[in-house]
Structures are given as C-alpha cells and as structure tokens.
C-alpha cells in the first residue's frame, strides 16, 4: 500500500514538472517572438524612410509546439517590399521605372499610372525622360533600374535573440511561470 502512495506522489511530481517545463518553453517562445519583432522594427525605423505601417510588415509569432519533434517554433515574416531592403535589391522598370521628383509633393508615394491628371512623356537627349503634367510641371523621371542598398539586418537580430534562448528559458523555469 505504501508503494502505491509513493508512486502516486512521483507521478504527481512528474506531471507538475512537465507542466512547469512546458510553460517555460512556451513563455520563452513568446519572449523570443516579441524581442525579434520589437528589435527588428526598431532597426527598420533606424533606416529612416519607413512609415509605422511599413514597419508593421515585419511580424514574429510563436507557433504551436510540434508534438512529433517536441520543439517550439517562432516564425518571422516580412512583406516583399521590406525583403528587398534586408538583402539589397535591383528594381527594374518595364521598360522604365518612374520615380517622383523631389519637388513634386503631390506625386510622392504615388505610382505614375495612378497620378490623377494626364501625364505626357518628354524625351531629352542624353538625360532621363520626364513625365510632365498638363500645366508643364515635371512630376516623374524614368530610369531602367535602381539599386537599393541593404538597409537593415533582421536576420542578424533574429540570430542574436535566438542566442539568448537559454537565458530566457532558465529565467522562466526558475520563476515557475
């Protein structure tokens, strides 16, 4: 009879310990996802030319624990626009890429085809062609391609946060949360 009680106690202790470890793993996953997302968005903001809406294109979230491999997965995603700045990219026009002129405030952030008034192309020998509004004010200039530099380092941030996983796990395990 006594052996039965100690085995029940052992079973209870094992179940509690399993819950404690599972909770620590889950909490670590959420903390890693939060840190990657926060630090990644901060890095994108430091590049200086991205709006808050664009920065929200970077997302990190914890997925469910995979039962077969007993692992917790954190997925980091970013929209295609941001990916070009993570690695650097060459943007090519079809046939030209139309870029708003600095002084054409009403054209900034808007594709040439979406401009509300008719635009006329003016070819200039030895210089980039222009798209000009009816009033004669230039709005866009055309180029064949633009090379965007690497502006931020989300992958490096994710690796740095992943290196902190043992610390996070130990902290959550010792708290018992």
Describe this structure in words.
With 177 residues, the protein is an alpha+beta fold. The protein folds into two domains: 112 residues, no CATH class; 60 residues, no CATH class. The chain is built from five helices and six strands, in the order ααββαββββαα. Strands 3-6-5-4 form a four-stranded antiparallel β-sheet, with helices on one face. Strands 1-2 form a two-stranded antiparallel sheet. Strand 5 and strand 6 form a beta hairpin. The model has no long low-confidence stretch (mean pLDDT 88).
In short:
This protein has 177 residues and is of the alpha+beta class. It has five helices and six strands, in the order ααββαββββαα.
What's the β-strand tally? 6
Taking the sheet with the most strands, its summary is:
4 strands, antiparallel
Name the assembly state.
single chain
Instruction: Classify the secondary structure makeup into a structural class.
Output: alpha+beta
* Overall number of domains: 2
The proportion of residues forming helix, as a percent range, comes to 40-55%
Rg, Å, rounded = 27 Å
Instruction: Calculate the mean pLDDT score and round it.
Output: 88
- From the N-terminal CA to the C-terminal CA, the straight-line distance is 34 Å
Biggest sheet strand order reads 3-6-5-4
Compressed to H and E, one letter per element, the order equals HHEEHEEEEHH
Uncertain spans: none
**What does the overall shape look like?**
rod-shaped
Estimate what percentage of residues fall within beta strands. 15-25%
Total helix count?
5
């Amino acid at each position: 009879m006594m052996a039965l009680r100690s085995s029940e106690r052992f079973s209870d202790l094992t179940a509690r310990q399993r819950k404690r470890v599972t909770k620590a793993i889950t909490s670590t996953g959420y903390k890693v996802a939060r840190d990657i997302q926060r630090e990644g968005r901060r890095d994108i903001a430091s590049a200086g030319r991205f709006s808050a809406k664009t920065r929200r294109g970077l997302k990190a979230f914890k997925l469910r624990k995979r039962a077969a491999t007993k692992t917790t997965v954190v997925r980091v995603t970013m929209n295609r626009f941001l990916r070009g700045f993570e690695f650097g990219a060459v943007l090519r026009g079809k046939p030209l890429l139309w870029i708003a002129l600095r002084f054409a405030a009403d054209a900034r952030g808007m594709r040439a085809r979406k401009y509300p008034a008719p635009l006329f192309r003016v070819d200039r020998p030895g210089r980039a062609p222009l798209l000009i509004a009816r009033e004669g004010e230039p709005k866009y200039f055309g180029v064949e391609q633009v090379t965007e530099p690497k502006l931020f380092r989300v992958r490096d941030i994710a690796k740095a946060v992943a290196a902190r996983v043992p610390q996070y796990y130990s902290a959550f395990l010792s708290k018992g949360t």
